[in-house]
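Sample log: Isoaspartyl peptidase.
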Amino acid sequence: MARLPKVLASALALSVPAGVSAQAAPQAEWSIAIHGGAGTLSRDAMTPAREAEYTAALQAALDAGAAVLRDGGEAQDAVVAVVTLLEDDPLFNAGRGAVLTWEGGVSLDASFMRGDTRAAGAAAGLAHVRHPILLARAIMEDGRHVFLSGEGAEEFAADQGLERAETEWFITPRRRDSLEQFRAAQDDPQVTFNEDAEHRYGTVGAVARDVRGNLAAGTSTGGTTGKRWGRIGDSPVIGAGTYADNRACAVSATGTGEYFLRAGVAQGICALMRLSGMGPQEAADQLIVEVGDMGGDGGVIVVSAQGEAAFSFNTSGMYRGRADSNGLNEVAIFTDSPPVDPPMQAAAEH
Ligand code: ASP
């Protein structure tokens, strides 16, 4: 029999305490965390009315997910309740209100995973599926494949009876303006384009633990403004933008997708927790530092097998919220401290 490399053997040894702690009493019977994107956003650029709109939208989505879990519902259904609401809300870069491609259309991506069986589903390049997250879940439930794209994915969605919408339904004036600004900035270096506020802000995601101890995660996005050539980011990629494993945690990411793909962020956090016994905050911070070191920015939401919810981001803001069976219930946009390098300001929230 081949000998295990030393480093792997020691990692396996370290997994024992993590497995033991997974059987310990949960910190929260149910727990949920949500996000609506991360980026560089200053308080000055946000009007009080706009801030109130975002806060209300996040609170409504958090409440919808928490209600499912409080009633003894499944983590999967809580994730779907949150993400479908945010997909319909034009404030966020998912479903209706998604950012536009170079050609002026939409190309939507989503992924979904459950932590008990590690079954997963994902879809990319959609232009007519009203709720990409429902398609991701349907692909998972069907079970033949994990990742579908483009026309084939839309055909599968139609076979499943999922609601269809015309491309125009997804497109909002705000996103049309952003695309125009983006195109102008490509042609003329004098024109500035606020990368974060207009380029991609607003991907949505949710992670949850239900009273049975099952975890689930889901992420949905329009990607980045002006994307071309069939570009796909991290959001629909299982292991990068989304992951759930009952032995460790559930994760949904948002940020510069190219870096989250390269760092394998979502699965990386779960693996760190499982193999090293790290808590969700420490593991999430470690991967976000890795992303930052490579040149990327963004953040993650994590719920551990014990029901602990954590955020980590290296941007000045992340639309986010969390609630649990112990009475935690909060939504937030900005961080109060300026980003630090290495970027771990979210840890200061604990
Ligand atoms: N991660 C998304 C993408 O790269 C964008 C975002 O989360 O802001 O497509």
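Observation: Residues 37, 200, 203, 221, 223-224, 233-235, 254-255, 257 surround aspartic acid (CB under 6 Å).
Observation: The chain has eleven helices and twelve strands.
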